[in-house]
Amino acid sequence: MMQCTFFSDKHWDQLYPFTFPHQEGRMRWGAFTLDKLWKEMATHAMSSDKHANAEDVQQILTNGAVNDRWVPDWSAWNILSKLQSGQSLTCGEVVLFQPVESDTNLDSMEFDDAHLIAHPTDFFIDCGMALKSQTALIQTHWKTESWNAALHGTHTTIIGDAEQVFMAPGAQVLASTLNTEDGPIFIGPDAEIQEGCHIRGPFLLDEKSVVKMGSRVYGATSIGPQCRIGGEVSNSVLLGYSNKGHEGFLGNSVIGHWCNLGADTNTSNLKNNYGDVRLWDAASSSMRPTGLQFCGLIMGDHTKCAINTMFNTGTIVGNGCVLVGHSFVPKHVPPFSWGGDENWSEHRFERFVETASMVMERRQQSLKDEDSKRWLLEFRNSSFLRNERK
Question: Quick one: which of 153, 234, 150 has its CA closest to 187?
Fold first, then answer.
């Protein structure tokens, strides 16, 4: 299998609050983390007569490193095949590919059409495009079969093309409606849609995730591995291992790893004046316009919120927070904050580690010592943001 090395550039500040757990190819885009997506494309290319340059590209990638915000597609694959040994690839000021040993006699090649993840809002904006473009790769990777009522259940109603409902081994859909008129629906290995749910594509439910009874999900939405979903969800992305298990609305939002949204948590995704939504920008430490009319919640890893939590339009919450209170959450909550309303304190790091360890054990995973050290560094580096509130 192809080996692919990644590097992170200075523009990761623009992806706040997502940090080191998503770097080096671990950022999930559609059905795959980026490292897996590069490898899946390599496997597909090797077996396809349309991509005779597959071995050349694999050799190039083996001898260099790829920007971990670069989303691969076949145009990226083709441009890489044209690189000479020791030549780098750029998109404006952004380095896309850096060889291990650069040839100083060669100018870098420019690729203006590179698809780079630039902002956290890109995840829900491009969700439908990502899922549709990965259809063939998902089918091969999950060994899916199209919907067959005799095999998958006569109590479920398919609206649209049943061949656009892709079922992985162990996937279940019980007495629900699936609508593929706007895009495909992918149900991953051992994933489950419980009774009375209504799902509109494009939609992906990753491995061992569950959509709970009576839920309503509007595409384009992508649910990562081992998540629990309930209530109403629209055009949102859960990156993995997170829960929104109860009633409440989540729209045009991105939720990181190991988060939990309490019962009746609601997000606003549209301003009362229908104006441009602004988001806090870590690179400039200020609110910036997004150019979006619809934008809800961006939540970092290991953040939890209590029942009946209310998030205003365009709210961004850092990693490791615990949110309680009766009024709207501030538009920006710094990492490792604890509180709500006018009462805020620092989430003690020892308590954070204790809770994170217990949460991860429930999904048969563990918080590694090296990750604890990285989180401690994140905790210290973000202290100035918490101090600004005082």
Answer: 153
**Environment class of 387 (CB within 10 Å of its CB; exposed 0-12, middle 13-18, buried 19+):** exposed
pLDDT of residue 283: 85
CA nearest 27: which of 318, 240, 260, 222? 240
pLDDT confidence of residue 390? 55
Contact call for residues 143 and 168 (beta carbons, < 8 A): yes
Nearest to 297 by CA among 313, 274, 285: 313
pLDDT in tens, 283-315: 888 999 999 999 999 999 999 999 999 999 999
344-360 per-residue burial string, b: 16 or more CB within 10 A, e: under 16: bebbebeebbebbeebb
The pLDDT tens digits for 54-96 are 777 888 888 899 999 999 998 898 899 889 888 999 999 999 9
pLDDT > 60? residue 190: yes
Contact 317, 309 (CB under 8 A): no
Domains of the chain: 5-118 (no CATH), 125-366+374-389 (2.160.10.10)
Record the pTM.
Answer: 0.95
Cβ atoms of 134 and 162 within 8 Å: the answer is no
Asked if 19 contacts 378 with a C-beta cutoff of 8 angstroms, the reply is yes
Euclidean distance between CA atoms 252 and 313, whole angstroms: 10
Farthest-apart Cα atoms in the chain, separation: 66
